[in-house]
Specification:
The chain is mainly alpha-helical. It has 14 helices and five strands.
C-alpha cells in the first residue's frame, strides 16, 4: 500500500512562487509514489478572514486551479475542500480536549501571524488553527507533509497530539500515524520587497498566475543588495533576493551569476533580466494548463466534489476508529 501525503493551502488568495518551491513542487514530484491528498483549507482561511467569506469562496477556485496548473493530475491525487469533510471538524473537537491553551499561545507561527494581523485578543478559532491542522493530517492518517518552514511548529503540534491520543486511547496500539514534515531546499522564499517570507497576504508576491509582463515588472522591482549602488560596486549575493530566486529557479546559472555579482562583472538589471526569462520559462507550461481549467470551472468544481466525496469516506471511517478507541460507541 502506498504511503500518504496530506498538504494544501489556505484559500485566502492566489498562490505564488513561495508556495511552488516550498510545497507544490514536491506535491507534483510525489504524486506517483504517494497517495496524495491536497486540502483547500477554507476553514483555516476563516480563522483570519471570517469577515470576508466572499474572498475565501473565490480563493477555493483560485487555489484549486493553481494546484492543477502546476501539473497535479486529478486522476492521481485527491483535491478536496476542508469544510466539506465533516470528520475534520469532529476530530478537531476531540483533540481540543487534551491540547493545552498555553502550548498554542507559545506556538511561534501563531505568535508571528497574530502580530502580522494585529490581533491582541485571539479568537478561539485562530488559536486552535494547529488543532484543526492535526485533524486535517490525521483524518487520512497521512505519513508525509510537504510544507514551508513556517508550518514546522504546527506539524510538531500534530505529532504531539497523535502521540498523546495513542497514549490515552490506543491501549498499546497506534490508532493514529505520527506524521513527518518534508521541507524543500528553499523552505522559505523571501518576498520581492526583501521580507523574509513571500506571503499571499503580504503584498510582496510573484503569483503563479502572473503573465510575462507582470513578471518582468515585478522582477525589475525586486530588492537587491542595497549597498550595491553603482555598476562597478561589488555585490553580495547572500543579501540579495534576486540571487535567492536564481538559486530556486535558475540553479544551473546560479554559481556563475554569484561570481559575476561579486566581481561586479554583471549589473543588477542584466541579472534581473536573466531571472525574469528563467521564471517565464518555468511558468510557461503552467499557463497552458491554467487556461484549460479557467475556461472550464465546472470541471474544476467536479474535481473538488469528487475529491471531497472520497475524503469523506476515508474520514468517516477514521472517526469510527477514533470514537471506538474513545469509548464513544454504544
Ligand atoms: P497566508 O498569508 O494567507 O497565510 P501563505 O502565503 O502563508 O498565506 P498558506 O496557505 O498559509 O500561504 O501556506 C501554504 C503552504 O505554502 C504552506 O506549506 C507554507 O509553508 C508554504 N509557503 C507559504 N509561503 C511560503 C514561502 N514564502 N516560502 C516557502 N513556502 C511557503
Ligand atoms: Mg500561512
Amino acid at each position: 500500500m502506498k504511503k500518504r501525503i496530506l498538504t494544501g493551502d489556505r484559500t485566502t488568495g492566489k498562490l505564488h512562487l513561495g508556495h511552488y518551491v516550498g510545497s507544490l513542487k514536491n506535491r507534483v514530484y510525489f504524486q506517483d509514489t504517494y497517495d496524495s491528498f491536497i486540502i483547500l483549507a477554507d476553514i483555516q482561511a476563516l480563522t483570519t478572514h471570517f469577515e470576508d467569506p466572499k474572498k475565501i469562496n473565490q480563493g477555493i477556485m483560485d487555489v484549486a486551479i493553481d494546484n492543477l496548473s502546476v501539473g497535479l493530475n486529478p486522476e492521481k491525487i485527491t483535491l478536496f475542500q476542508q469544510s466539506q469533510v465533516k470528520s475534520i471538524a469532529e476530530l478537531t473537537i476531540f483533540y481540543s480536549m487534551f491540547v493545552s491553551v498555553n502550548s498554542l499561545r507559545h506556538n511561534p507561527t501563531i505568535k508571528t501571524e497574530a502580530k502580522q494581523y494585529g490581533y491582541k485578543d485571539l479568537s478561539y478559532g485562530f488559536l486552535g488553527y494547529p488543532v484543526s491542522q492535526a485533524a486535517d493530517i490525521t483524518f487520512c492518517n497521512a505519513d508525509l507533509i510537504p510544507v514551508g518552514d513556517d508550518q514546522l511548529p504546527h506539524i510538531e503540534q500534530t505529532r504531539k497530539i497523535v502521540r498523546r491520543f495513542n497514549e490515552l486511547y490506543g491501549k498499546g496500539k497506534d490508532i493514529l500515524t505520527v506524521p513527518e514534515a518534508l521541507l524543500s531546499e528553499i523552505s522559505r522564499l523571501p518576498g520581492i520587497d526583501g521580507n523574509a517570507k513571500m506571503g499571499k497576504s503580504l503584498g510582496n508576491a510573484i503569483y503563479l498566475s502572473d503573465n510575462k509582463e507582470i513578471i518582468d515588472k515585478k522582477v525589475r522591482m525586486a530588492k537587491t543588495d542595497t549597498n550595491r549602488i553603482h555598476l562597478n560596486d561589488k555585490g553580495n549575493p547572500q543579501v540579495c533576493t534576486v540571487a535567492t530566486y536564481h538559486k530556486a529557479f535558475n540553479l544551473s546559472d546560479y554559481g556563475n551569476l554569484c561570481e559575476m555579482c561579486k566581481n561586479a562583472t554583471i549589473g543588477c538589471s542584466a541579472c534581473k533580466k536573466e531571472l525574469a526569462d528563467a521564471l517565464n520559462k518555468e511558468l510557461e507550461p503552467f499557463r497552458e494548463r491554467r487556461a484549460y481549467y479557467e475556461e472550464r470551472p465546472k470541471i474544476v468544481g467536479e474535481i473538488i466534489a469528487e475529491g471531497s466525496r472520497k475524503a469523506n469516506i476515508i474520514g468517516d471511517n477514521m472517526v469510527l476508529h477514533v470514537k471506538d478507541a474513545m469509548h464513544l460507541l454504544i
